[in-house]
Structures are given as C-alpha cells and as structure tokens.
User: Which sequence fits this backbone?
C-alpha cells in the first residue's frame, strides 16, 4: 500500500487572477481548468513535479471554499493524499478515531474519487484522500 502527496489545494477569491499569478510563478499554463459541480468549485490544476497545485474558487456563496475564504481569507485549503484503495483507507481511519466528512467517496477533479477528513481531527489541516478512477 502506498500513500503519496497528490496535490495542495489553495483557496482564492478570484480564479482568473490566481491563474495569472501561478502561471507567472510556475512559467506554464494550467494543465486543466474545470468546474466540479458536486464540490461547488472551479479549479485550475498546475503540474509541479510529482505533485500538483490546485487553485480553487467557490462557485457559489455556500461552497466550502467560499466559506473558508470569507472566514479565513485566501490560502492553503487542503492537502490531498493519493491512496490505492479509498474505501479501505476510510474504514481504517474511522477505526483509528479520525472524524470523516465523507464516509462515501464523491467525484473529484481529474477523474478521481475523493473523501475528506475533518480538520478538527487532523491537526487543523483539511485532508482529502483520493483514488484514481
Ligand atoms: N482547513 C482547516 N480548517 C478549516 C477548513 C480548512 N480547509 N475549513 C474550515 N475549517 C475550520 C473553520 O475555521 C472552523 O474552525 P473554528 O471552529 O475554530 O472557527 C471549523 O473548521 C468549522 O468550519 P465552519 O466554517 O464552521 O464549517 P464549514 O461549514 O465551512 O465546514 C468543513 C468545514 C471542513 C467541514 C467543510 O469545508 C468541508 O466539508 N470540506 C470538505 C469539502 C471541500 O472542502 N470541498 C472543496 C474542495 C474540493 C476539491 O478539491 O475537489
């Protein structure tokens, strides 16, 4: 079994402006820009070595990302870890006493299944677990 850092999610107020900034910093265009209706976000994905950077803008005021930005300002929103077997991993974390936001995986960006653990039980950092579909 292997768990590896898949991406870092960054919450922003304005995706278009953030794409310009990260295109300048990384000297490349985003690999993809898409909307994930299920998560109420618009996302720009940049490759960065073995990892990716996902820039997120909430697509409605009640989106988790919009609430995060309104409350805490823009910044690092979550870490995403890629796992081989998401269902098994969720079961393991639940047994270990970690509070899960999603006990059943949802659809994520880039053809993945995803589930979140609550930041209150993971050292203050929102953790996304993802498995490639
Ligand atoms: N990282 C760390 N702490 C966070 C956080 C985050 N991303 N989001 C919220 N919190 C903290 C809040 O600051 C708050 O702390 P305090 O009680 O100390 O003030 C606490 O968690 C509860 O926050 P809240 O605003 O009352 O609750 P929300 O209703 O916004 O829910 C959370 C928080 C984590 C349950 C919700 O954001 C969630 O379900 N997230 C998972 C889904 C998601 O983030 N999707 C977007 C990304 C999708 C993708 O990448 O594909």
Assistant:
């Amino acid at each position: 079994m292997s768990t590896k850092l898949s991406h870092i999610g960054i919450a922003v107020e304005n995706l278009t402006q953030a794409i310009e900034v990260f295109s300048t910093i990384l000297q490349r265009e985003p690999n993809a820009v898409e909307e994930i209706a299920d998560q109420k976000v618009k996302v720009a994905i940049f490759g960065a070595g073995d990892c990716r950077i996902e820039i997120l803008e909430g697509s409605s005021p009640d989106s988790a990302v919009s609430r995060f930005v309104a409350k805490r300002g823009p910044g690092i929103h979550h870490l995403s870890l890629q796992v081989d077997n998401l269902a098994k991993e969720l079961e393991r974390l639940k047994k270990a006493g970690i509070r899960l936001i999603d006990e059943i995986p949802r659809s994520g960006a880039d053809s993945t299944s995803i589930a979140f653990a609550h930041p209150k039980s993971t050292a203050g950092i929102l953790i996304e677990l993802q498995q490639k579909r």
In short: The CA atoms of residues 58 and 66 lie 5 Å apart. The chain has a mean pLDDT of 95.
